[in-house]
């Protein structure tokens, strides 16, 4: 059976509605700007924003690369550490009882509230920003994977136990495959926040990056440049989320197949 038309229809169903909505918003935005209903000192017109994206592309590229390096590095570090911590908590009931409730409690603390403290301890620049982004990725990975690793069917555990399988074999053959939906869910959650928190760190403790560019542009009332930096940040965030979703589809094709049933 040729599934190409079906795949095209599914892609159109996913892509067209948000695309149409974006077009409507941009048209309405342009009309309101032309009518003077939106002050240019708050939000420039779409044309001015597009001009800023083109004329300031070298500046946006330089600061965007710095933010991307910080966000991706912290994202990877936090995700790896969170995965390791989840494996340890799953292997030890005592550790899980002691530390898992604390991990849940940390989600009630706004990260921006401790950002100045992180900058004070780590100093300005890359170390503080990496720490901030790593925390963003660490706790979603820890919480999701701790639950995911324990979601494996007990029957499979009993089967491998009867075959004298080692703890590592049970981890790789049962627990990690069963936890893959939790793993990619954690990666998506962290991906949506990594660039945002990198920018928050740059607001307070950096002299480079899109966050620094936003602050600098705001101080000099260069609103097109400020909004251009925000648009680039949104594009980078969506790109990272898209990469994670693509990797998930390639790594877990059975999940997509089940969704079509």
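^ structure tokens above, recovered residues below v
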């Amino acid at each position: 059976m040729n599934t190409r038309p079906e795949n095209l229809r599914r892609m159109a169903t996913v892509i067209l509605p948000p695309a149409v909505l974006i077009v409507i918003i941009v048209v309405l935005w342009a009309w309101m700007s032309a009518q003077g209903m939106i002050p240019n000192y708050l939000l420039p017109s779409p044309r001015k924003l597009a001009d800023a994206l083109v004329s300031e592309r070298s500046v946006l590229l330089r600061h965007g690369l710095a933010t991307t390096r910080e966000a991706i590095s912290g994202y990877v570090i936090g995700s790896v550490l969170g995965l390791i911590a989840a494996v340890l908590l799953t292997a030890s009931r005592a550790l899980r009882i002691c530390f898992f409730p604390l991990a849940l409690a940390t989600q009630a603390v706004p990260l921006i509230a401790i950002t100045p403290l992180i900058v004070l301890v780590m100093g300005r620049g890359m170390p503080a920003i990496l720490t901030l982004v790593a925390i963003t990725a660490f706790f979603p990975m820890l919480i999701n994977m701790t639950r995911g690793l324990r979601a494996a069917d007990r029957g499979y555990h009993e089967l491998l136990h009867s075959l004298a399988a080692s703890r590592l074999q049970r981890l790789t053959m049962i627990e990690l495959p069963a936890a893959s939906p939790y793993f990619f869910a954690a990666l998506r959650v962290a991906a949506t926040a990594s660039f945002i928190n990198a920018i928050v760190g740059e607001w307070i403790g950096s002299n480079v990056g899109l966050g620094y560019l936003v602050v600098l542009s705001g101080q000099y009332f260069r609103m097109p440049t400020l909004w251009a930096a925000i648009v680039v940040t949104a594009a980078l965030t969506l790109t990272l989320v898209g990469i994670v979703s693509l990797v998930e589809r390639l790594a877990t094709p059975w999940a997509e197949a089940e969704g079509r049933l």
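The first helix runs from residue 4 to 34.
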